[in-house]
Amino acid sequence: MPGLIRRNDIDEVRSRINIADIVGDFVTLKGGGIDSMKGLCPFHEERSPSFHVRPSVGRYHCFGCGEDGDVFSFLQKMDHVTFTEAVERMAARLGYELHYEGGGAAPDHGNRARLIAANAAAEEFFREQLRTPAAQVGRDFLGSRGFDAAAAERFGVGFAPKSFSALGDHLKGRGFTQDELTASGLLSTGERGNVYDRFRGRLVWPIRDVTGATVGFGARKLLDDDQGPKYLNTPETPIYHKSQVLYGLDLARRDIAKGKQVVVVEGYTDVMACHLAGVTTAIATCGTAFGVDHIKVLRRVLGDVDNSNTQGTGQVIFTFDPDEAGQKAASRAFAEEQRFAAQTFVAVAPDGLDPCDLRLHRGDDAVQSLIATRKPMFEFMIRRQLAGHDLETVEGRVAALRAAAPVVAGIRDSAMSVGYVRSLAGWLGLDPREVSRAVSSSRGTSSRAPERSAPPRAGAEEPAEPAAPEFRLMDLPTDPLTRGERDALMAILQHPEHVGRELLERVTQVKVGNAALGVVRDAVAAALAEVQGDPDSEDRWVASVAEQAPAGFTSLVSQLAIAPIPQRPDQIGAYCRDVVTSLIDRDLLRLKAEVLGAMQRAQSDGDQERWSILARESAALETERRRLRES
């Protein structure tokens, strides 16, 4: 293994690279003064350019979010590569040979570059072949799946001619050796030592790594006399490892990183359909099940950081076919769910349609609706367990509880676990305390019992578990945003009759910045769902909210419910409505700012269709804000 790259080489590469050329691949830059260029920041949403690049000093800086660095840090953040990989990419771009501590250049870097070049040349060949008369069968297949020539061009789809040597002869004519083409997986060797093209008479998709370099191919069978599998992929090579590559990640990575959401589908055409329908965070595995290495790649792109054993802010959405194979895939994904800090969801299309068929038969809106109506992974798996039992009988409900309890027991987030205990109780028609005991029992049998310093005396009570730390009102930050959230929750808990049912239901959907107050907001939502009519008609409104709150938050609920509201009694109604409306309006303003930022990017990209969709969303948000202020 080579050591670190020599410092002199790093400095030399940095000095030779024009940072504006690299940043310009991601950001549209315009003149911003002497030795300065500016554009919209790729690291946060904004409508006016505050991102500046200074080529003479080789650095960038955003005056909006504070991001700052050189060309290597920029590539690390945008392409999610290591520092070493960023330096090596820039060195390869310059044709500069790097040296490493311990002497010499990195092993096989030249060979890797040759294999990537061979794959790039093969992709070009396949794309050209798709235009030939012999590729009509491939064009017909694409057309039957709803893809035109522009779609094929966008995703680099090509055609491998039905020949044992067409690709090999072409690439040898371009200067590649037989050994290089075999090592790249483009040529295969038969039992008698004969060498032939691996892909023949098939539609071909290029598979690219996160930086956009083509490292392999996936090919679909088209001809009846093709005795091979339906899909044939590049074999394992020095640059292609199927457990680590994700089809479409090169196209989706920016939107995944910005939106903190990824959609995992099951095939190449599903990825194409999703992207064309506006779901631009879709990716797929390449001929293998979704596994640990794929999760590592996605977590890096998502910025998925585990925080104190709680759910992250990102979203991972899996789409599965409702057939048996899809159910098995769901089970495999669920087995790996705990490796994500992000929240996981499942989207299953109606009538057994995959995203490609859904777009073909019902249009782009149906694909977007599929993702929008996703269900949490835990709910999906719990309902799967319940579906196998007769819930009309006592025996069936008990058996269903035993099957579903381990799923709930596996939830890391304590607040979410409490919520699913109540949901499961509702689905089964059982007492929540009974369900809670079953979940606790399941959790106890799945983990090691806590150690004790000494066994209890005969007849003595079991030592109580340590109480969860309580969140207190006085511990909340005093910034204006948190104060606004606090005041709104005080109004909701103390005077729901003045807030009204409509505003109560709407405010439970807003994004709350303070985590502790967010838990209280969730408890309010859960309690509100159980209240018949208006909460002011219920004698136990605050008690119901406290019961829904997880351990450690009941005291905060009580304190919010009794803290003095800074308003005279004759003005309390208007005050309560105002603070709740202000919180909702702030959330609508946040959503509108996100939409306006997305509109700016769509306009820059020349995507008029997406701009129109976003414009309608912006108008709808503004209409809702106006109606809110007038109510």
How would you describe the overall organization of this protein?
The chain is of the alpha+beta class. The protein contains 27 helices and 16 strands. The strands form four sheets. It has a five-stranded antiparallel β-sheet with strand order 1-2-3-4-5. A five-stranded mixed β-sheet has the order 13-12-14-15-16. Helix 17 (394-409) packs antiparallel against helix 18, helix 20 (480-494) packs across helix 25 (554-562) and helix 26 (572-605) runs antiparallel to helix 27. The longest helix has 34 residues, at 572-605. The chain is globular.
- Give me the count of strands: 16
Helical proportion, percent range: 40-55%
Mean pLDDT: 82
- The order of strands across the largest sheet is 1-2-3-4-5
Strand content: 5-15%
Alpha-beta classification: alpha+beta
Overall body shape? globular
Poorly predicted parts: 307-311, 446-468
User: What's the number of helices?
Assistant: 27
For the sheet with most strands, the description reads: 5 strands, antiparallel
Radius of gyration: 29 Å
Distance between the termini: 68 Å
In short:
With 631 residues, this protein is of the alpha+beta class. It has 27 helices and 16 strands.
Question: SSE layout and pairings?
Answer:
Blueprint: H1 7-16, H2 19-23, E1 30-31, E2 37-39, E3 51-54, E4 59-62, E5 68-70, H3 71-79, H4 83-94, H5 109-129, H6 136-144, H7 149-155, E6 158-160, H8 166-173, H9 178-183, E7 187-189, E8 195-197, E9 202-208, E10 214-221, E11 231-233, H10 249-259, E12 261-265, H11 268-276, E13 282-284, H12 292-302, E14 315-319, H13 324-335, E15 343-347, H14 355-362, H15 364-372, E16 375-376, H16 377-387, H17 394-409, H18 414-428, H19 432-446, H20 480-494, H21 496-499, H22 501-507, H23 515-530, H24 541-548, H25 554-562, H26 572-605, H27 608-630
Parallel strand pairs: 12-13, 12-14, 14-15
Antiparallel strand pairs: 1-2, 2-3, 3-4, 4-5, 6-9, 7-8, 9-10, 10-11, 15-16
